[in-house]
Amino acid sequence: MIESIVAVKLVVRVPCAIIEHDGKVLAGQRSAALSFPLQWEFPGGKQEENETDEETLVREIREELDVDIEIIQKLPVTTKDQGWREIILVPFVCKLRTFEMALSEHEQIMWLDPQDLLSLNWTVGDLDIIKSYYTYLAGK
Ligand SMILES: Nc1nc2c([nH]c(=O)n2[C@@H]2O[C@H](COP(=O)(O)OP(=O)(O)OP(=O)(O)O)[C@@H](O)[C@H]2O)c(=O)[nH]1
After folding, report:
1. Signal sequence span per UniProt (predicted)?
2. What mean pLDDT value characterizes the chain?
3. Where along the chain do its domains lie?
4. What is the pLDDT of residues 18-32, one digit of tens each?
5. Predicted confidence (pLDDT) per residue in 29-72, tens digit
6. C-alpha 28 to ligand 1 mean position (Å)
7. Are 63 and 101 in contact (CB under 8 A)?
8. Ligand 1 geometric centre to CA of 23 (Å)
9. How far is Cα of residue 86 from the mean position of the Cα atoms in its chain?
10. Pocket of ligand 1 (CB under 6 A)
């Protein structure tokens, strides 16, 4: 008899936004009530069926921050294994098209100088994103 174990893993695609404004970058602190409570992330969220990465991102940023963004540049995708699921983070450098923010999910936001980003306690996948962002800035 041939026995086999088939591991099924959920794969979640999460576009997220590195929003630049006046030389600063926006970081969002996750709510105390969510997974990875009070850790910092680039706003964004899970892709829904039939959405492009860009459509997901524009929708999520409207939902979470009530602003419109313009997407400037896609950065390299990074993958995080959370055991029972794999998170595919798809980062985009963006700028604001509207400026009045209203938070609906985050505990708080902060605008940081790019060189200060690593002072926060980021969710695990975001350190790769910050590294890619520094490479992007160095090549500008
Ligand atoms: N938006 C966003 N999510 C991130 C980042 N880094 C990272 O690991 N994630 C993970 O990707 C998932 C995005 O889910 P979400 O923002 O749509 O919703 P959620 O917290 O309710 O999800 P969850 O409860 O399933 O973890 C979360 O598990 C989050 O921890 C990031 O920079 N931005």
Report:
1. none
2. 95
3. 11-138
4. 999 999 999 999 999
5. 999 998 999 999 999 999 999 999 999 999 999 999 999 999 99
6. 11
7. no
8. 25
9. 15
10. 14, 16, 34-36, 41-46, 80, 87, 89, 123-126
Residue with tokens 């995708």: 77
Read out DSSP for the chain?
---------EEEEEEEEEEEETTEEEEEEPPTTSSSTT-EE-SB-PPPTT--HHHHHHHHHHHHHS--EEEEEE---EEEE-SSEEEEEEEEEEEES------SS-SEEEEE-GGGGGGS-B-TTHHHHHHHHHHHHHT-
Neighbours of 122 (CB within 10 A): 19
Which residue CA neighbors atom 23 of ligand 1 most closely?
35
Q: Which atom of ligand 1 is nearest to the CA of 41?
A: 32
Q: What global pTM score does this model have?
A: 0.93
